[in-house]
Amino acid sequence: MTPHIEAQPEDFANTVLMPGDPNRSRYIAEHFLENPRLINNLRGVQGYTGYYKDTRVSVMASGMGIPSISIYSHELFTEFGVDNIIRVGTAGALKEDLELGCVVAGMGACTDSAVSKSLEVGSVHFAPVADFTLLETAVSHARLLGIKMPVGNIYSSDLFYDPAGKDVKLAKLGVLAVEMEAAGLYIEAAKTGKRALALCSISDNVITGEAMSGKDRESTFNEMMIIALETAITVDKLSVNKTKEKLKLV
To answer: Among 131, 167, 204, 236, which one carries the catalytic annotation?
Structure first.
C-alpha cells in the first residue's frame, strides 16, 4: 500500500488504462471489462481489474492535473509493477475540423507546467513524448478498426481556464488539442523507464465553441476505449513473448 493506493501489487494488470474521473473509471470497468473487481477506492479514486478478451487489464482514475497523475503513475510504475499506462481522457480540440467525440493520440505533450524541472537537466527543456511501441500499436488498431485518429502534439495545461490565450497561440503551431495530464504521465514514464501513451476523446472545440455536456463526457468515448483495450492486449502479448525468449536464453 501507498498513501494513495490501497491495493496489492498483484492486484494490477501489466497495463493500466487511466481516465481522470473516478466515475469514468467505474463506467469503463462496468461496460468494457468482464468480471471487474474493485481494487482501490482510497480517497474515492476507483481502480478495477478485469478481463478484456481473456487479457487481464486494469483501469484506475488519475484525478485532474499533472500533480495528481504524476503521483498515481509514479506509484503504479515503481510500487505496483505496472509497465504500461494509457491515459484515456478528454481534450479540447485546437483545430476547427476535429469533431466532438473523435480520438486523438498525443505523440508529444508540450506543457506550461514546471514538472520537467524535477528532471535536473539544467537549462534543457525536456520534451515529453509517448512510447513508440504503444503509439504504433494504437495507430495500427485504429486503422484496422476504420477509426480516423489524428496523431500529433498536444498541450498539457496547468490551467483549465486560459486567460492568456495560450490555446489559440499553440493552435497556430499545429498543436491538436489541450488537456491537463499527458505531459506529467510521459515524464513519469521517462523517469522510471516504463511506457505511456495518451489517447483523448474530443469533448469540446476551443476554436468553434462546441462542447459536450458533462454527462456525455463520461460515456461518449467508445472508439477511444476499443483502441486502448486492443492496444493493451497487443502489448501484453509482446511482454509475454519477450519473457519466453529470455527464458529460452537462460
So the answer is: 204
21 is catalytic: no
CA pair distance 104, 161, nearest whole angstrom = 21
Q: Which of 226, 89, 222, 201 is nearest to 144 (CA)?
A: 226
pLDDT tens-digit map of 98-108:
999 999 999 99
Q: Are 224 and 88 in contact (CB under 8 A)?
A: yes
Q: At what angle do helices 22-32 and 222-249 cross, to 10 degrees?
A: 70
Q: Hey, what amino acid is at 47?
A: G
Q: 174-184 burial by CB neighbour count: b if 16+ within 10 A, else e?
A: ebbbbbbbbbb
Buried residues in 100-125 as b, exposed as e (16+ CB within 10 A): bbbbbbbbbbbbbbebbeeeeeeeee
> Given a cut of 50, is residue 85 above it in pLDDT?
yes
CA angle 55, 183, 78 (to 5 degrees): 55
Cell numbers representing residue 146 in the block? 476504420
| Residue 117, all three cell numbers | 524541472
pLDDT digits (tens, 9 = 90+) for 176-226: 999 999 999 999 999 999 999 999 999 999 999 999 876 676 556 899 999
Taking 60 as the threshold, does the pLDDT of residue 246 lie above it? Answer: no
What angle is formed at CA 138 by the lines to CA 136 and CA 139, rounded to 5 degrees?
A: 65
pTM above 0.90, yes or no: yes
Among positive and negative, which fits the CA dihedral 226, 40, 193, 233?
negative
